[in-house]
Design goal:
- Two copies of one chain form a homodimer.
- Chain A is α+β, with helices and mostly antiparallel strands.
- Chain A has ten helices and four strands; from the N terminus they run βαβααααααααββα.
- Chain A has a four-stranded mixed beta sheet with strand order 2-1-3-4.
- The longest helix of chain A is centred in the middle third of the chain and has 18 residues, at 64-81.
- Chain A is globular, with a radius of gyration of 16 Å.
- Chain A binds chain B through residues 53-54, 62-63, 65-66, 68-69, 72-73, 76, 169, 172-175, 184-188, 190-191, 194, 203, and chain B through 53-54, 62-63, 65-66, 68-69, 72-73, 76, 80, 169, 172-175, 184-188, 190-191, 194, 203.
Chain lengths: 203, 203
């Protein structure tokens, strides 16, 4: 997935448990492709980021009015983009395993298809993405072997994910999805188009 | 500002201290007019709403990374819409006086012009909107008499503002700006177009 030097690129920072990351993940490749922008897929974990902000849970659980708006808003957004939407039993989902696997694939050809397969299962079908068999299925859908689940548990992968979360923090990321273009940070799925325009130098 | 029965309308809930309310307030009338939607201007206070959520300050102050993004984002948004932007010395601004006056004008012909005059002074020029002379100037710009400042201090106006904040809470509003179309709530200035389309029945 390497782009020509100087080609416009956007860092797409997402979290599988993040509801708004779902429509962003499903939309970004076609939108970016149409604008000639390369996507750098960057899975991370919001838990440590929220914890550093003093939050022990998602703001959507901590603030019920905000949560009610989010669920209805997500329903509207998914309908507008023709995406299935089913609320999973637990929110936020335990996304650690999926995130480690996505990290292994973030710069590999199978990465984006795997990410979409996980998001569709988690937020489109309401599946429990903490279950290894769900992630194995998503790997198969992306044309990869479920044997990658083992690589996801190695100390190297765990360390790499910790480093990725630290990098998110360094970039000033405080929520998901976030888009990074050079030093510019854009937060929220509805800023996707703005971030892509910025990457093209039209911001 | 009354609309024909059945004409599409949107409730525009804003707070003068809210940075994102500024571009929304400057943009909404022309956008709504172009789409044949009537705007119901609804000033309110975020302080009591945040307090009920357990927050003693703006989330942008409580969470520095979120605050840094907001200031840069606002700068980008204002530039994109050709709006002046100057950060006022104090954030959030003390908006009580301006809000009481805006309440008096919310369904009067001078209301929208007054609201824009306050927002331009507060976020466009960085003036202190807690100063009565700034609000008096904004009233003059809207073609009204500064004598209205006295009416803003009556028990009736204070009670009316309390009732308006209670109505915001009843509607599920947790931040500003918010747009209300029937039972549908849209939060955030970048949802303006979506809310207007919803009001037209195209949501």
């Amino acid at each position: 997935m390497s782009a020509p030097a100087g080609a416009p690129r956007v860092g797409f920072w997402f979290e599988f448990a993040s509801t708004y990351s779902y429509p962003a993940a499903m939309r970004i490749e076609s939108e970016a492709c149409a604008k000639g922008v390369t996507v750098l897929w960057r899975p991370f974990l919001l838990g440590p980021i929220f914890a550093a902000q003093g939050m022990a849970d998602s703001p959507f659980n901590l603030h019920p009015a905000k949560g009610r708006h989010m669920w209805r808003d997500l329903e509207r957004i998914c309908a507008a983009h023709g995406l299935p939407f089913t609320r999973a039993p637990v929110f936020p989902a335990r996304s650690l395993l999926a995130t480690r696997v996505a990290l292994l694939g973030q710069d590999r050809p199978w990465g984006p298809a795997f990410v979409r397969a996980v998001f569709r299962r988690g937020h489109g079908e309401g599946a429990d993405i903490a279950a290894p068999e769900v992630i194995a299925d998503a790997l198969r859908e992306a044309g990869e072997t479920p044997a990658l689940l083992e690589a996801a548990g190695t100390p190297e992968t765990k360390d790499a994910l910790r480093a990725q979360v630290a990098e998110a923090d360094r970039l000033g990321i405080f929520g998901a999805p976030s888009f990074v273009v050079g030093e510019e940070l854009f937060w929220g799925q509805d800023r996707l188009e703005t971030a892509l325009d910025w990457a093209r130098g039209e911001g």
